[in-house]
Amino acid sequence: MSFKSTTASRRRVFEIAIICALPLEARAVKALFETQPTNEENIKYDYGTGADADFNKSRADQNAYTIGRIGHHDVVLVHMPGIGEISAAAVAADLKHSFEGIKLALVVGICGGLPGSANGNQPEENRRKLMLGDVVVGKQVIQYDFGRQYPDGFKRKDDPENSLSRQNPEIRAFVAKLESKREELEKQMWGSLRSAFKFKLNEGSSTGPLHELRDELMPPTYWHKHHNLDDCRDKKCRNDHGVCEEARGSSCEQLRCDNNQIFTLGRGEPKQKPDIHFGTIASGNTVMRSGEERDKLAAKEKQSIIAFDMEGAGVWDYLPCVIVKGVCDYADSHKNKKWQEYAAMTAAACTKVILDQWPGIHPQQSLENQASFNPKN
User: Which residue numbers delimit the Nucleoside phosphorylase domain (predicted)?
Assistant: First the structure.
């Protein structure tokens, strides 16, 4: 593929955007690019310079992009400046300025999962339990931290006027199609994961980067705090509902969390074939780090929440959107970053198989067939 200079009209060739909040998420997506420009800074401001500019973006656009191809799609990877809904909304708005032809925006990355609760609208015997490394595809998004704080507690605004809208019929139908082919997609995702990240998975090895991962879960009432109270300098951990700042940034090993409290959800290391789950994602500017609050929120919401993220709500109302997130923790106080890389890889691999299901643009419109385009003609 040739990535030559272009005019603003040629940006309309791009119908697919992939939005990532963290560098590790973007790296996982880029690993799936079949082709990409040699110059990472390939999109410059559009000052009307025509052929002298590379993939001109709108002058008002503050986003950073990387262009590539996944399957039969030319895609634009959007690098967010930071996490959270506000940043995501600003990125989505700028993206629309430069790439007016976007028909599908995929918010791809990592999230916290509600342990063992996926497909919660199904009978218990039919549920597929959500575990670390699995992938969540959002059918709906709620803003769980948008509401009013009363003396007796927080009340989320869930009336139609203050709720996120549904996606357009095309996106809803597409997600329904994906859900109907879930088992097939899971097989394809595993193939994509093995192909793109074989050096990371290091199959059959006892020394690979992911060999040390363990899928472990603590009870929601067992707090991440100093359990040897003499280790707590400011004594906050002595209180039943107190946690010191030092504890918040410490590992379970440093705090002497009781290993006898740990239970697994069916595996002790990265599962060979991650599952895909469809459901509601709770999105907010607050990082969910409480097992008790996580479970309370899930219990009182009408929708079946299966995961928590920080960007989905920011993009949802701006673009035709599908959220694809790999589960890296259980949204509790014991969360850590050990599973983040693997979860980013599973989300990226799932994104590839999702794009294989999305209809491509007419071949004559693709970048590859416009390589000889001359804006001065």
Answer: 15-151
Structure tokens at 209: 């980067």
Pair 16, 358: CB distance under 8 Å? yes
> Please, what sign has the CA dihedral across residues 91, 164, 15, 309?
positive
Give me the amino acid identity at 313. A
Cα 109 → chain centroid? 3
The string of pLDDT tens digits covering residues 235-281 is 788 787 788 888 787 888 887 888 878 776 655 555 568 999 999 99
CB 129 within 8 A of CB 268: no
Phi-psi region of 365 (alpha: psi -120 to 50; beta: other; left: phi over 0): alpha
Please, what CATH class does the domain formed by 8-153+166-212+267-370 belong to?
A: alpha beta
CA 94 to chain centre: 20
At a CB cut-off of 8 Å and minimum separation 6, what does 43 contact? 54, 55, 56, 57, 64, 65, 67, 98
Distance spanning both ends of the chain, measured CA to CA? 21
Q: In the chain, where are the structural domains located? A: 8-153+166-212+267-370, 229-257
